Amino acid sequence: MSASAKPPTCLSVPEFLSWDAPPGERWQLVDGEPVAMAPTSRTHGTIQSELAWVLTSHFRAKSSPCVAVTEPGIVPRALSANNLRIPDIAVTCTGYDVEEQDLADPILIIELLSPSNRAQTWINVWAYTSIPSVREILVVRTTEIGADLLRRDTDGNWPPKPATITDGDLTLESVGLTLPFADLYRSTRLARSA
After folding, report:
1. Mind spelling out the 3-state secondary structure of 126-148?
2. Closest CA to 28 of 49, 44, 7, 45
3. pLDDT 10s per residue in the chain (194 long)?
4. Are 112 and 46 in contact (CB under 8 A)?
5. What does the radius of gyration of the chain's CA atoms come to, in whole angstroms?
6. d(CA 72, CA 94)
7. Class of the 41-193 domain?
8. Could you tell me if 136 and 174 are in contact, meaning their C-beta atoms sit under 8 angstroms apart?
9. Which of the residues 13, 57, 59, 160 could staple to 64 if both were Cys, CB 3.0 to 4.6 A apart?
10. DSSP string, the chain
C-alpha cells in the first residue's frame, strides 16, 4: 500500500484482522474504519511499562491467574461487528488454549491520555463500558500527574463521571491492588518537575 493510499472502509472485525496493514503502523477499527495510531511519547511509554510491571509483579506475588496484556485487541459489545479498539493495557483472568486476536473477558482496561488522542481515548473508554466483564477503566494522563477512574458498582452500573486521582493511593479493586499513585510517574519527567 502506498503512503497516499487510503485504508479500506466498512470492515468487519475478521476483515480488519486479516487486512494487510501498512508496516510500522498501529491500527484500531472504529465503526468499520481503520484508524492509525501515533507512536507513543517517552512519558506515555514509561508509564505504560511501569503499570504493566506493577500489575505483573502483583499477579505473580499472589499466584493469580490474571495477566496484564499490553496493546490488546478489545471488541466492545456495542457495534461489536465493526469495532476493535487497542487500549494501552488490559487485564484478564481467563485462560486460553488457542491464540486470541481479541482479549477475552477483560476486567480492567487502562488507557493513557495524550493531548493528540484525547477525544478518541474517551470514545474508546465509553465503548469499553459496554463489555460485561469490565469492572474498572483507568485513564492516566501523560502531560500532568493525574488520572480518572471509572468503577462499575455492585448493580453493574457505571458512574456518570469518573473519580479524579492526583495524589495519595490508587486502588484498583478489580485486581485487588493498592499503590502510591505517584509511583506510576517515578521514572518520568513529570516526577522531577512535581
Report:
1. HHHCCCCCCCEEEEEECCCCCEE
2. 7
3. 444 466 777 888 888 878 888 777 778 788 888 877 777 788 999 999 999 999 999 999 999 999 999 999 999 887 777 778 889 999 999 998 888 888 999 999 999 998 888 888 998 999 999 999 999 999 999 999 999 999 999 999 999 999 999 999 999 999 999 999 999 999 999 987 65
4. no
5. 17
6. 14
7. alpha beta
8. yes
9. 59
10. --TTPPPP-S--HHHHHHS-PPTT-EEEEETTEEEEEPPPPHHHHHHHHHHHHHHHHHHHHTT-S-EEEES--B--STTGGG-BB--SEEEE----SS--SS-SSEEEEEEEE-GGGHHHHHHHHHHHTT-TT--EEEEEESSSS-EEEEE--TTSPPPSSPEEESSSEEEEGGGTEEEEGGGGGTTSHHHHH-
Taking the C-alpha atoms of residue 85 and residue 10, their distance in angstroms, rounded to an integer, is: 15
